[in-house]
Amino acid sequence: MDYMLKPEDFVGVSFWIISIGMVASTAFFFLEGNSVSKHWQTSVRVAGLVTLIAAVHYFYMRDVWVSTGESPLVYRYIDWLLTVPLQMVEFYLILAAVGAASAGIFWRLLIGTIIMLVGGFMGEAGYINPVVGFIVGIAGWIYILYEVFAGEAAQASASSNSEGMKSAFNAMKWIVSIGWSIYPIGYFLGYLSGAGADPATLNWVYNLADFVNKIAFGLIIWAAAKADTAKA
């Protein structure tokens, strides 16, 4: 069994790049957490927790791929089960920082996240038909999108007087809509494209999505926090 990363293994290279990128992002967010206003510090540090958890899992996923060429399905979904709810919590935290959050927002975002992840995992793991899993996952995602674009979370953001919070909220909801669309594209190409399961395509698309969504998501919060702090 060959554990060496090959130069032609573009998926393996993507695993390496994102694992180091997550480590660097974690250090950045934790250090920068001390440079923003107090009510933003938790949000910036939670962004660091997201990239920290992802970094640890990417070390394992990277080794599985390089040594076996198999999709690290279990490690990936354990990562998502921890990091995606934390990203949803970020919406609640930035609203709570300006007194505009409710428990209902938190629970609706969490429920949508669980539906999305459970549907995707069961479809990929073969517990249910991949098409059914895809549909269930998309339903959970749409539920989340409704909450941040038209639901109570969106209304709370619109009624707030904090421009920094509004800026972060609006940018984050576009990450969740446009950025997260990469995941179902990967699922479709990996399982539903008609060519059979394609772990290489599935994993490089998922890796790209995680790189953009986890790191960019945190950077949006940090940028808004820095801007808001500078105005204070």
Describe, in plain words, how this protein is organized in 3D:
It is a single chain. This protein has one domain: Rhopdopsin 7-helix transmembrane proteins. Helix content is 82%, strand content 0%. The chain has 9 helices and no strands. Helix 2 (38-68) packs antiparallel against helix 9 and helix 5 (130-149) packs antiparallel against helix 8.
Concise overview:
The protein has helices spanning 10-32, 38-68, 73-96, 103-125, 130-149, 152-159, 163-179, 182-192, 199-231. It is mainly alpha-helical and 232 residues long. It has a single domain, classed as Rhodopsin 7-helix transmembrane proteins (Rhopdopsin 7-helix transmembrane proteins), CATH 1.20.1070.
Stretches where pLDDT is under 50 for at least 5 consecutive residues are: none
Can you give the helix content as a percent range?
over 70%
Count of DSSP E strands? Answer: 0
Integer tally of domains: 1
Based on the coordinates given, report the CATH architecture: Up-down Bundle
Q: Multimeric state of these chains?
A: single chain
State the distance separating the first and last CA atoms. Answer: 58 Å
CATH fold-level topology: Rhopdopsin 7-helix transmembrane proteins
CATH homologous superfamily label: Rhodopsin 7-helix transmembrane proteins
Classified by CATH, the class is Mainly Alpha
Order of helices and strands: HHHHHHHHH
Shape: globular
Radius of gyration: 18 Å
Give me the number of helical elements.
9
- The secondary-structure class comes to mainly alpha
How is the main sheet built?
Answer: none
Instruction: Name the beta content range.
Output: under 5%
Mean pLDDT over the full residue set:
90
